[in-house]
Amino acid sequence: MAKERANPNEKMTPDLPSATDVFVVGGGPAGLAAAIAARQRGFEVVVADGMQPPIDKACGEGLMPDALEALAQLGIRLSTDEAHPFCGIRFLGSSLSADADFPFRGRGLALRRPSLHCILLEHAARLGATLLWGTAITGISREGVHLGQRFVRARWIIGADGANSRVRQWVALNAGPRPRLRYAFRRHYRVAPWTDHMEVYWGLHCQGYATAVSNDQVCVALASHDPALRLETGLHTLPRLSARLRDAATVSTERGALTGNRRFARIWRGNVALIGDASGTVDAITGEGMGLAFRQAVALAKCLQSGNLANYQAEHRRLMLRPWWMARLMLTLDGRPALQHRTLQVFQEHPEVFRRLVALHVGALPPTRLLWDGLTLGWGLLTA
Prior knowledge:
Blueprint: E1 19-25, H1 29-40, E2 45-49, E3 62-63, H2 65-73, E4 84-86, E5 88-92, E6 97-101, E7 108-110, H3 113-126, E8 130-133, E9 139-140, E10 144-147, E11 150-159, H4 166-170, E12 182-190, E13 197-202, E14 207-212, E15 217-224, H5 231-236, H6 239-244, E16 249-250, E17 255-259, E18 268-269, E19 272-274, H7 289-306, H8 309-331, H9 337-349, H10 351-361, H11 368-383
Helix pairs in contact: 1-3, 1-7, 2-7, 7-8, 9-10, 10-11
């Protein structure tokens, strides 16, 4: 079971400083990761968010091995007292399934999003970041950040305020290809975990995701292109997952969010940089959103220290490349039951193909293998 954590709302909001090195707009996981990485390099940091912690959001709640490595670079190492382990990924269709463990005996960890948020904010506070909760940001300028009638001078401003970022709008960085977004919903069920893998269930109109977050709770999410397809209805189209949840009590309210691959032409201008969903997204099918934000935070702090945000643009593109292409590859199965069936056949007959794709997915193989394994998988589908 997860350890009891202090209620962050019990902490007094600190006085507002008149100036700081780095001002982070948005106190979700991406913003807190940016604050932690900046503090590690000696910057004075202020984080402000209009909400009160802990902040929840619809997501699959699993952290892949590469996400845990990035989290360790921020000085956070989760234990099984705080999170629930899983050892790989399993794909399930209507009648077939295939699974692969993470390479090098690696493991992922899953925990409730509010618990992760508390861990991050406590670490940021321990490092000396100033955290302002319930604080609305009303604008930015080259000199700093406006909080209503108050103003904080800042050398650097980081927009970590989510997919609908106002910071991105204020600095005119919205240009980019029009994305095809999907609708995702998430709920938790009280049921004993039935597997030590993160599971992806493939259906005609949606995908279901199941990840155990404790010894008696499973996080279940569903994503589709249909805005009217809610989780309960979608589960009826995924009988194998629905059967696992029969008679299981729900322990959280249903939460929804948009998901999809979204890129922007630029993610910085002047002294302003974007991170996390504000800087672009990858589809939730990858499970890479959190890990990507943690890696971006490390890269951004390094570029702030050198004073060169152009380098952050290049590193950001490199970091996005693998999960973006993995999402594209997996979503070729979306809405194609015959292709789903043939793909799972190939994975069953050639398990090494799925193992390599999982290794590639978590960064244990170079991206150049994506082309080779894509061709191998394509050949297998043609001859299946």
